């Protein structure tokens, strides 16, 4: 698999080879090998409607076209950027209606960036609390549980959490 800056652009493995089968159709296994996506993931994307292969009338196999290949690569790129399968469905539906999905794409990623920053702040606060607790606990002896506590190290924390569980 090749990539460019930030690992965002991807191309299928050995893209110089044409897809096998009539009119470039590929089976699940062939599509999996071409894209380095597991057959299980391809079947899942098919079950939830992100990929819509045609059925081979002779053997009943699901056959994937070049369009399916491109769609699967799009799904991989979107997932690489943190889009959920629900997000991807929305984007594909918007494009399928002939509308530009770009405003939705920008809006989704803006919200995701904002949420990620919030999570990073929460994790940074948690890390600081954990490091502070450990630095105090390293100087304390081990204790034996009593009927009133399980571990006096944790019970020694006086700061109350901001949220109630």
Mean pLDDT: 85
Q: Globular, elongated, flat, extended or rod-shaped: what is the shape?
A: elongated
Low-confidence stretches: 1-19
Kindly report the spatial arrangement of strands forming the biggest sheet.
1-2
Q: Based on helices, strands and strand pairing, what is the structural class?
A: mainly alpha
CATH architecture assignment name of the largest domain: Orthogonal Bundle
Radius of gyration: 25 Å
How much strand content do the residues show?
A: under 5%
Using the coordinates shown, work out and report the CATH topology of the largest domain: Multidrug-efflux Transporter Regulator, Chain: A, Domain 2
Treating each run of at least 4 consecutive H or I residues as one helix, how many helices? 6
Give the proportion of residues in helices: 40-55%
CATH class of the largest domain: Mainly Alpha
User: How many domains?
Assistant: 2
Distance between the termini: 45 Å
Summarize the topology:
Layout: H1 28-35, H2 39-47, E1 54-55, E2 62-63, H3 66-80, H4 85-96, H5 102-137, H6 152-155
Antiparallel strand pairs: 1-2
What would your notes on this structure say?
The protein is mainly alpha-helical and about 160 residues long. The chain folds into 2 domains: about 5-100, Multidrug-efflux Transporter Regulator, Chain: A, Domain 2, CATH 1.10.1660; about 100-165. The protein contains 6 helices and 2 strands; from the N terminus they run H-H-E-E-H-H-H-H. The protein has helices at about 30-35, 40-45, 65-80, 85-95, 100-135, 150-155; strands spanning about 55, 60-65. It has a two-stranded antiparallel ribbon with strand order 1-2. Strand 1 and strand 2 (about 60-65) form a beta hairpin. The protein is elongated, with a radius of gyration of 25 Å. About 10% of the residues are buried.
């Amino acid at each position: 698999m090749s990539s460019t800056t930030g690992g965002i652009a991807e191309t299928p493995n050995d893209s110089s080879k044409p897809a096998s089968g009539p009119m470039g159709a590929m089976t699940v296994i062939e599509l999996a090998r071409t894209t380095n996506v597991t057959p299980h993931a391809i079947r899942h994307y098919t079950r939830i409607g992100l990929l819509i292969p045609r059925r081979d009338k002779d053997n009943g196999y699901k056959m994937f076209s070049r369009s399916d290949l491109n769609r699967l690569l799009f799904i991989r790129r979107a997932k690489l950027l943190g889009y959920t399968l629900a997000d991807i469905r929305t984007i594909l539906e918007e494009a399928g209606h002939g509308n530009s999905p770009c405003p939705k794409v920008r809006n989704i990623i803006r919200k995701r960036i904002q949420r990620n920053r919030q999570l990073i702040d929460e994790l940074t606060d948690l890390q600081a609390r954990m490091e502070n607790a450990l630095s105090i606990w390293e100087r304390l002896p081990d204790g034996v549980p009593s009927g009133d506590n399980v571990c006096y190290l944790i019970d020694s924390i006086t700061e109350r959490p901001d949220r109630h569980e």
